[in-house]
């Protein structure tokens, strides 16, 4: 966990006295490029979002919200700053959260998901991937897909394919370390159509 780093972050950006939020971002709000006035000095925003990026190393729960904020580093607006500050308010209520690495079976499993046309500006979907070694999460990402998907099935399938490629790479990496996995990796997906295609 990065409890000290989180506390330092809250103090650095003068957010330690604010009321905590239950979620890192509003589920129904989407950030847009020109949704409010541009910040006169974007340095504060860039510093804040960069610091939050570092925090995602031990906090996968903020990865999606930080990914959203990172898209506006070149020309942030006041709404973007409010979204970044909301992440800090969420962190204030969950300072001691982190990752727990526990001994367990050497099995590889992953979860993939996508939100179809989740970006309101370019209609690209966002893939979410979480990979476990045994019971411990070892890698995760929230990343915009490179092309526009025509359906939720296509978006989910792209996320599934990306996750499968990552699993293959991790399996080869473990093999290079001398760790052999007896069972094949398990890949979880919640889209029936994407599973049928796969």
Spell out the blueprint of helices and strands.
Layout: H1 3-12, H2 43-55, H3 63-70, H4 78-92, E1 108-115, E2 126-133, E3 136-144, H5 152-176, E4 186-189, H6 192-197
Parallel strand pairs: 1-4
Antiparallel strand pairs: 1-2, 2-3
Keywords:
four-stranded mixed beta sheet; 39% helix; 198 residues; globular; alpha+beta
- What is the percentage of strand-forming residues? 5-15%
Number of strands: 4
Helix content: 25-40%
Return residue spans where pLDDT drops below 50 for at least 5 consecutive residues: none
Overall outline: globular
Side-by-side strand order of the widest sheet: 3-2-1-4
N-to-C span: 36 Å
Q: Mean pLDDT score, rounded?
A: 93
Q: Order of SSEs, N→C?
A: HHHHEEEHEH
Rg, please? 18 Å
Count the DSSP helices: 6
Q: Please describe the biggest sheet, giving its number of strands, its sense, and whether it closes into a barrel.
A: 4 strands, mixed
What structural class results from the helix and strand content?
alpha+beta
């Amino acid at each position: 966990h990065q409890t000290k780093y989180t506390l330092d972050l809250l103090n650095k950006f003068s957010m330690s006295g604010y009321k905590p939020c239950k979620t890192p971002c509003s589920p129904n709000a989407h950030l847009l490029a020109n949704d409010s006035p541009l910040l006169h000095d974007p340095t504060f925003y860039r510093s804040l979002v960069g610091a939050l990026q570092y925090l995602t190393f031990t906090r996968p729960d903020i990865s999606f919200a930080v990914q959203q904020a990172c898209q506006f580093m070149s020309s942030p607006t006041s709404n973007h700053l409010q979204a970044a500050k909301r992440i800090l308010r969420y962190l204030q209520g969950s300072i001691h959260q982190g990752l727990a690495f526990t001994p367990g079976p050497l099995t590889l499993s992953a979860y993939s998901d996508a939100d179809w046309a989740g970006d309101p500006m370019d209609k690209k979907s966002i893939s979410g991937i979480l990979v476990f070694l045994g019971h411990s999460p070892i890698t995760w990402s929230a990343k915009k897909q490179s092309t526009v998907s025509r359906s939720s099935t296509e978006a989910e399938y792209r996320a599934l394919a990306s996750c499968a490629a990552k699993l293959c790479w991790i399996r080869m990496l473990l093999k290079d370390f001398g760790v052999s996995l007896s069972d094949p990796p398990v890949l979880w997906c919640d889209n029936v159509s994407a599973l049928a295609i796969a």
